[in-house]
Amino acid sequence: MNNHSAFRGAVLFSVSILTFVAVPLSAFSHGFAGDRFFPATLTTDDPFAASEMSLYTFSEIRQPGQPPFEDFDNGMDISVLVLPLTALTISDGYSIQKAANQRAQTGFDTAELNLLYEFFENDKHETITSIGLTWDIGGSGRKSLGNPSFSTWTPTFYFGKGFGDLPDSLPFLRPFAITGTLGLGIPSSSGTQSDPNPDTLQWGLALEYSLIYLQQHVKDIGLKAALRPADPAC
User: What would the 3-class secondary structure string for the chain be?
Assistant: First the structure.
């Protein structure tokens, strides 16, 4: 077994142990501030601490270069509520990079650990804020795929705000919500003068509009029964 495999096995074993000792032990519906549900998006993570699992999200990206190539990535993450309002998440992925007329390069991406603490929630104003720290574990991904040998630490602020507290005179604006993240990536190595590793500002912002929120909490717009959740907390 090589060092990468041993490292990944140790991390996954540790997370498995935490899954059994964490409280509460089972995953549950989460992501609500009052009547508002905040899902994760392509640009933002959800700001809630919870036990959950996301299996095999797939992406395909065409990368420019000489020659250009396609990057197919399969990712997954597991979150465990290790303390009240505090979640530990491990994320990893497996990439396949294929350039024209060349053999595909395959291997694991850089493994990532995140610790998130949900410090504020207001149901009336549909507001949630959290802080977290992400560790991109240097050397855990295959270097030939472009994964770095150094680690990066990223303290991050997460937030979500729904507009359900707007007055009834603005009914069709109430289903709107925004979520966002703001972080600073700090590499463990400054690199060299010719190839530096600078600090990076990492941010994402998403504007959302929920037809389900409109249907359930503002006005019946005749959504088919199949689109209506049986319980808004599910």
Answer: CCHHHHHHHHHHHHHHHHHHHCCCCCCCCCCEECCEECCCCCCCCCCCCCCEEEEEEEEEEEECCCCCEEEEEEEEEEEEEEECCEEEEEEEEEEEEEECCCCCEEEECCCEEEEEEEEEEECCCCEEEEEEEEEECCCCCCHHHCCCCCCEEEEEEEEEEECCCCCCCCHHHCCEEEEEEEEEEEECCCECCCCECCCEEEEEEEEEECHHHHHHHHCCCCCCHHHCCCCCCC
